[in-house]
Amino acid sequence: MRPFLLGAPSVKSPTRRDRHNPVLHRDSWKCQSCGKRSNLEVHHKEFRSRSGRDSEGNLITLCTACHAGSPFTEIFCAAITYLHGKL
């Protein structure tokens, strides 16, 4: 799966864009880990391979570095969900 990069021309599916834009807007167009506002991706908190859905509550905005660099992404997302009052 290709990441959803802010302004990336490779994103063609309107349904994907429709699904990700509300998440980016909700998260103020910034990485929920480091606060960076560029190279953003929308990440599944509960992985699709583990029956995670594409619902807004299961998606979070991360920059490419935080998305790729954290071996504890699932734990991080659980903590963010808790701190944000269970999005």
Q: Can you give a write-up of this model?
A:
Helix content is 34%, strand content 11%. The protein is an alpha+beta fold. The chain has one domain. It has a two-stranded antiparallel sheet with strand order 1-2. The radius of gyration is 12 Å and the shape is globular. The model has no long low-confidence stretch (mean pLDDT 75).
In a nutshell, what does this entry contain?
By secondary structure, the chain is of the alpha+beta class. The protein is built from 3 helices and 2 strands, in the order H-E-E-H-H. It has one domain.
What are the salient characteristics of this protein?
87 residues, globular
Averaged pLDDT: 75
> In oligomeric terms, what are we looking at?
single chain
Helix content: 25-40%
Overall form: globular
Number of E strands: 2
Uncertain regions: pLDDT < 50 for 5+ in a row? none
Q: What structural category characterises the helix and strand content? A: alpha+beta
Give the helices and strands as they follow along the chain.
HEEHH
Strands across the major sheet, in which order? Answer: 1-2
Tell me the layout of helices and strands.
Layout lengths: L13 H13 L13 E5 L14 E5 H6 L3 H11 L4
